[in-house]
């Protein structure tokens, strides 16, 4: 299923749903950031996805990282809570979802990089190279907050 992100766009379609999403900001020992290239919109992002029934937020983040990248991780903190009603995601099935996402800090435990049906590329990106990638503004914000190591979580 393809998707289009609208961010502060007055011509964006009106949201008709909301879902809990999670993402994980992970750096390796060299400070590189674990990133994926999505199959649904061809943008680079940090791993993440939707919470499933029966799991905690942290479990969802760990599962999404494993599914999308092959990396096993553990959640170590919260970077931020993102709920911008001016960021909507339109799917080709007619769903238009308002953003609601919790971004976690996590650390790699083990595993080897691999792609999935949701990822066409999985890479460790040096932090000074992220700006050269095609990354949505909402993900850039999470990366910035992750790199800044704020003492308190960001929230909107």
CATH class descriptor: Alpha Beta
Strand order of the largest sheet: 6-3-10-7-12
Task: Look up the CATH topology.
Answer: Nucleoside Triphosphate Pyrophosphohydrolase
Question: What is the overall pLDDT average?
Answer: 96
Low-confidence spans: pLDDT under 50, at least 5 residues? none
Number of helices: 2
How many domains make up the 3D coordinates? 1
The ordered string of helix (H) and strand (E) elements is EEEEEEHEEEEEHE
Structure description:
The chain is globular. It has a single domain (3-147), classed as Nucleoside Triphosphate Pyrophosphohydrolase, CATH 3.90.79. The strands form three sheets. It has a five-stranded mixed β-sheet, with helices on both faces. A four-stranded mixed β-sheet has the order 1-8-9-2, with no helix packed on it. It has a three-stranded antiparallel β-sheet with strand order 5-4-11, with no helix packed on it. The chain contains two helices and twelve strands. Helix content is 16%, strand content 41%. It has 156 residues and is an alpha/beta fold.
Brief rundown of the structure:
The protein is built from 2 helices and 12 strands. Helices cover 16% and strands 41% of the residues.
């Amino acid at each position: 299923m393809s998707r289009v992100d609208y961010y502060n766009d007055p011509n964006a379609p009106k949201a008709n749903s909301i879902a809990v999403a999670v993402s994980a900001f992970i750096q390796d020992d060299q400070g590189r950031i674990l990133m994926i290239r999505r199959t649904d919109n061809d943008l680079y992002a940090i791993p993440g996805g939707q919470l499933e029934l029966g799991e905690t937020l942290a479990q969802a983040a760990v599962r999404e990282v494993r599914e999308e990248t092959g990396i096993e991780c553990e959640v170590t903190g919260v970077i931020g809570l993102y709920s911008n009603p001016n960021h909507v995601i339109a799917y080709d099935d007619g769903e238009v979802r308002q953003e609601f996402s919790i971004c976690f800090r996590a650390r790699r435990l083990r595993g080897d990089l691999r792609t999935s049906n949701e990822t066409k590329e999985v890479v460790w990106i040096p932090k000074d190279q992220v700006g050269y990638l095609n990354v949505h503004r909402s993900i850039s914000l999470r990366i910035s907050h992750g790199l800044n190591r704020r003492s308190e979580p960001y929230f909107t």
